[in-house]
Design brief:
By secondary structure, the protein is an alpha+beta fold. The protein is 27% helix and 41% strand. The protein has helices at 4-17, 20-26, 78-92, and strands at residues 31-32, 43-53, 61-73, 101-115, 121-134. It has a 5-stranded mixed β-sheet with strand order 1-2-3-5-4, covered by helices on one side. α2 (20-26) runs antiparallel to α3. It is elongated and about 50 Å long.
């Protein structure tokens, strides 16, 4: 069985790489599980994730917390926030489906733009919380 975190990452990557609104803002499908060393801006990459058991005596389940990082350069925080809004809309409906897992609840917990040391690069973090049951 694939872990919930791995299944969700692949499902989210697939969804975002096919979403017209996200693609228009990224200018091509730049949604990475692990970004290449010199990826062109803007792009989306997975940041930290953790999962914990949320099962019952009769059902296996998990709570998975994921973070997506939107890397952008120029235009201050505006570009990252616009992409974050498009990502949130893309993931909102219908619920993402993950191989081997049923998504019970999918929440965007927050969006946080962070300027980097060079002051021209921004990392906008989207925090997600997903409750799943094993199929």
């Amino acid at each position: 069985m694939t872990s919930p975190a791995a299944a969700l990452k692949e499902a989210i990557r697939t969804r975002l790489a096919a979403d017209a609104a996200v693609l228009a803002l990224l200018r091509e499908a730049k949604v990475y599980l692990d970004p290449p060393r010199h990826a062109a801006f803007p792009y989306i990459a997975f940041a930290e994730s953790n999962q914990r058991d949320n099962g019952t005596s009769s059902e296996d389940g998990h709570i998975t917390e994921l973070a997506l990082a939107i890397w952008s350069r120029g235009n201050g925080s505006a570009e990252g926030l616009a992409i974050a809004d498009a990502v949130s809309m893309s993931l909102a409906s219908p619920l993402v489906t993950a191989t081997g897992h049923r998504v019970i609840n999918f929440l965007v917990l927050g969006i946080q733009p962070q300027p980097q040391k060079d002051t021209d690069t921004w990392r906008t973090i989207i925090r997600l919380r997903v409750v799943t049951e094993v199929l």
